[in-house]
Amino acid sequence: MTGQAPFGTFHMTRTAGLWLLIGLAGYALLPWYMVAGGFWSLRWIMAPLGDGASGLTHSLQGKVWLALPLTGFAIAAVAVLGRASQLTTARLLVLAGTVGLALLVAQGLLVLRDGPRLALLGTASQTGMGAGAAVTATGLLFLLTTGISSLGRGRGDAFVTGLVGLVVALVAVFVFYPMAFVLVRAFELRDGAGFGISQFLPRFFDPNVWGMACFRGTGYCGPAINSVALGVMTGAGTTALGLAFALIFTRTQFRAKRLLRVLTILPIITPPFVIGLALILLFGRSGTFTTFFADAFGWEKTRWLYGFWGVWLAQMLSFTPIAFLVLIGVVEGVSPSMEEASQTLDADRWQTFRFVSLPLMRPGLANAFLLGFIESLADFGNPLVLGGNFNVLSTEIYFAIVGTIADPAKAAILSLVLLSLTLSAFVIQRRWLGKKNYATVTGKADSGRNAALNPALRAVCYGVALPWAAFTMIVYALIVFGSFVKLWGVNHTFTLEHYKRAFAITIRNGVHFTGAAWDSYVTTLTIAAIAAPLTAAVGLATAYLLVRQTFTGKAVFEFSTMLSFAIPGTVIGVAYVMAFNFPPIELTATATILIIAFVFRNMPVGVRGGIAALSQLDKSLDEASIMLGANSFTTLRRVILPLMGPAILAALTYSFVRAITSVSAVIFLVSARHNMATSFIVGRVENGEFGIAIAYATVLIVTMLAAILALQALIGRRTLRRADRVEAP
Amino acid sequence: MTKGSVRFEAVTKRFGSVVALKPLTLDIAPGTLVTLLGPSGCGKTTTLRLIAGLETASEGRILIGGQDVTHQSATYRRVSMVFQSYALFPHMSVAENVGYGLSVKRLPKAQVRERAEEGLALVGLAGFGKRLPSELSGGQQQRVAVARAIVLEPEVLLLDEPLSNLDAKLRRHVREEIRQIQQRLGLTAVYVTHDQEEAMAVSDRIIVMKNAEIAQEGSPHDLYDRPASAFIADFIGDANLIDVEVSQSGADTEIALLGRRLRVALPPVPNGAAKMVLRPHQVRLTRDAQGFALPAEVTYAAYLGNQIQYTLDSEAGRIFAICAPVAAPFRPGDGVHVTFDPADVRLVPA
Q1: Is the Cβ pair B71, A152 closer than 8 Å?
Q2: Which of A262, A313, A483, B99 is the most exposed, having the fewest neighbouring CB atoms within 10 Å of its CB?
Q3: With an 8 Å Cβ cutoff, is A3 touching chain B?
Q4: Does residue B306 lie in a domain region?
């Protein structure tokens, strides 16, 4: 190994030395455990031997097991200070990181609050890890990755290896670790008899879960069957409607296309159960339409809305725009030259559509269907509000946790059922459709025009889509209207009372935010604002690694980061409650757990956006920067990020907005101190206080619209200007 | 003095199970311009990217300037590259682009500006520094890319099909400029192209690659005049390849073509079946047979102003001929006789 990269050894020891110092500082200076009042209150500084004791202090005070991570640092010190060859130094660093992290994790998992799992350590106990432990772990992790990058594998880029290590560690701790808890809980035996496999299969395939009695007309179906039936119906419905919208949008002279675009933004900024709420006010027993038809035609007032059809209607309203958005791309992806070729071969418009365009769109349609299916299965808000006796998996899981008879094992099993369904759909989508991509969009400019629709087909599209669009508009208009009337359906006099109750400000000896909603409103915005940049960062970093870097195990890395796509929010919520309720990582009832939940729930959106944006950036731009002597980090900072403005904006907006509208995971994680808007609204709905609920929802929608526009003004103008020349000229 | 030399020692590259480069050994002398030439997928770009450090060798050693750089990342190699797409950073001005490599090295700003301006002057773009790349023509962008690569004073300059995005006329002009700059600065340059004319025009040496290995290397003249295989004969300049039988007798080589014997003065080729290389412009066409002649029929004639191209059918197969324009050219269907000077003929293994 003589004559080997002189820069390499120097850079490695310098980087490793830095992380060694940071890790040691975390170990010796910062409080090892979580501190009262939160880290940022900095009150722990005043109690260096008590609350603010560092790992070092604790281990001297008798918690000897906390000295274990020092082993890693000791090996690292030998590696950094010793004058060994590059390969030996690198191997020592890998050893240091591995040993240190393993010992850190082991002591965390073995020593709990109520004592150690093994008799070895006597009566040792400890609370949840805090800032010191986090910094120590980070130092060890980067010692490990610095070592790996210098082993001579790949291009030896410490920054890239570090980034891979960081994302893998985060996903492992905040996705896989909690999911492992769900898995373990599912094997718990009844009556606290420990764990075993004997009851798992019978409970997993329990007829109470998979029953099909409703098809035979002899009773209720199990929630799994209900969920699947609903998912198939919603997937098919949204795909058909979405296609009609997409065809109108791309293949006709329809005048109000911008209005259709607005339609696609609406569901993104709508809290999920708001549509359900509006439907109740329209079609419920005392809903506007129900009353109207009862008065006019003497139709019986029924509760048809509360059940399968109501949930389906709400999901159609919620998810059609998503299918629309996906299918615009699909329909536009059919190259005009294909259609022109078909027409020059004497096919008429219908034949062209039927035999050329439609088959080309088929993978895209299947994709939209699977997306609708997954969204429907994961949906929690609509079934909660409209489900009635119609049980689906997501709500059953919720009731198994918060219901009168809490049954975590049942929740875990149902979570696995739900997860296996969404995961199957997800795997089908990736494995099967991934290879059947006919997208004909290439870098080449494809002039030519798409064929217009055949008149009959156009009539069908208009006939289906336009009434639906009108219906959606009415629903939204009524949400706003409803927030300004005394009692919907009963007393339609104008009032600001709901807004007053939610958002009143009293000025007496200063400004007091006396409205009932202020607390949750401020919490929601704060947490969403903290989560958004973190989500965007993790998502875009992952996208960068996936698109631009090659490393060992990339396929596994890709699959595991994409996995959070398939994990329904309810399942994440359950998993977090099960995993983060006790040491080593104790986060329940904090704001941190909400932020983390949002980051890993919404990360795939950032990943997807980042991948799309990066694929449009010519790879030779990165390579040019590298060839000019920049390292990966400089390249990222000076070349890639400045060119990714729109993608960053989209990721920020999306994660901010989704953090505000999300309910499924949040509802398990909120606490009295950190209540979120969505769970507050659900609470009002459950109490029948519809007025204040929709007033709050309206305020949220307006807030999010304002945020989207503000973000666009802030980042958009500077960078979007360059969007037209992102390709290397 | 090894500065600027490039050396491959049995370097291979695999992408999964695909072999992109079979064990390759090559030496590039300092200060020369060497072209990697070959059809697409032959491994020439992979070789270039291995020198650049953008790919890592699966096996073997790579030395630049006598130093082992096999495991050194592109960032730290003293090698610059001009990309096919130019890869100018669209959000930076021309001067920022040229100065990027210097500013990444944390040189003082004034020095960066000064040297960027020098680099631009070198490629004849002094005063264009404030513009954005998108405001320049294709040829100007190309020169900015060259300036950006050479201000770093690399040991080796790599050029990846640098002219392929330019139109035909500009291409000849720019390739002359690149050659002049390379010679003036005494740079080692490795140039990838699939255009044999371009390769002939700029290179000190050409390495022709085929199927992930070297097919033949040598000076442009060597390759044209002494092709080692039918592939090279056909790839470097057009060639008619005619089946012949070789029989050695004394110092001269004797070949049998359609049962008739010819004496040619040639480097030896093993006895038996071989191919005779006959360049299109070496073909002479006459109406009447004179001495040795192949009867043929004109199937296609194209008038190009400075020349006339004929496609002929003969007993020896299809023959392509280029002739000077004459007042009364042959027309399709005409019977002609093909003759040539045996001294022009080259032989390659069948």
Answers
A1: yes
A2: A262
A3: yes
A4: yes
Contact B87 A618 (CB under 8 A): yes
What is the DSSP pairing of strand B59-64 with strand B67-68?
antiparallel
Residue type present at position A706: A
> pLDDT value at position A8?
55
A631 contacts in chain B (CB < 8 Å) = 73, 75
Mean pLDDT of chain B: 88
Q: Which residues pair with A512 in a beta bridge?
A: A506
- Number of structural domains chain B divides into: 2
Chain B hits for A625, CB-CB cut-off 8 Å, are: 89, 100, 104
Q: Which of B225, B260, B279 is the last residue of a domain?
A: B225
Average pLDDT score over chain A: 82
A628:B100 CB<8 A? yes
Give the closest of B86, B89, B134 to A639, CB-based.
B89
Show residues of chain A in contact with B67, CB under 8 Å: 3
pLDDT in tens, A427-443: 887 776 655 544 443 33
Q: Helix A358-378 crosses helix A408-427 at what angle (to 10 degrees)? A: 170
Same domain, B132 and B269: no
A172 vs A180: CA distance, rounded Å: 10
Question: What are the beta bridge partners of residue A491?
Answer: A487
Which of B104, B115, B148, B155 has the most A C-beta neighbours within 10 Å, making it the best mutation to test the interface with A? B104
Q: Are strands B252-257 and B260-264 parallel, antiparallel or unpaired?
A: antiparallel
Pair A435, A328 in one domain = yes
Best of B2, B70, B89, B151 to disrupt the A interface (most A CBs within 10 Å) is B89
Tell whether A160 lies on the interface with B, counting CB pairs under 8 A: no
Is the CB of A643 inside 8 Å of chain B's CB atoms?
yes
**What is d(CA B5, CA B62) in angstroms, rounded to the nearest whole number?**
11
From B86's Cα to the closest Cα of chain A, the distance in A is 7
Which residues touch A643 (CB under 8 Å, ≥6 apart)? A617, A621, A722, A726, B89, B90, B91
Mean pLDDT over A444-462 rounds to 70
Within this chain, do residues A424 and A528 fall inside the same structural domain, yes or no? no
Tokens of B258: 């359609």
Q: Which of A4, A155, A618 sits opposite B85 (nearest CB)?
A: A618
| Whether residue A417 sits in one domain with residue A526 | no
**Residue in the block written with tokens 């439609």:** A358
- The alpha helices in chain B, defined as continuous H runs, are 44-52, 94-104, 109-122, 138-150, 168-185, 196-202, 220-225, 230-235
On whether any CB of chain B is under 8 Å from the CB of A623, the answer is: yes
- The predicted complex's ipTM stands at 0.83
Which residue's structure tokens are 């159609």? A316
The tally of CA atoms less than 13 A away on the side-chain side of residue A333 is: 18
Q: Determine, for residues B73 and A155 on separate chains, whether the beta-carbon distance falls below 8 Å.
A: yes
Same domain assignment for residues A110 and A242: no
Are the C-beta atoms of residues B274 and B350 closer than 8 Å to each other?
yes
Nearest to B71 among A156, A618, A626 (CB): A156
A281 token code pair = 């006010």
Instruction: Give the type of residue at A581.
Output: N
Q: Which of A4, A626, A643 is closest, CB to CB, to B68?
A: A4
Q: Stretch A214-229: mean pLDDT, rounded? A: 83
- Partner residues linked to B255 by β-bridges: B246, B262
Write the CA distances from A483 to A265, A277, A509, A698, integer angstroms: 21, 12, 30, 8
- Please tell me which residue, B77 or A190, carries the higher pLDDT value: B77
Cα distance between residue B45 and residue B66, in whole Å: 22
- Asked, for residue B344, whether it belongs to a domain, the answer is yes
Alpha-carbon span B182 to B185, nearest angstrom: 5
Q: Flag whether pLDDT at A108 surpasses 80.
A: yes
Residue A49 CB contacts under 8 Å (≥ 6 apart), including other chains: A57, A61
- Pair (B210, B334) in one structural domain: no
**Range list of H helices, A428-568:** 455-482, 497-503, 518-548, 554-566
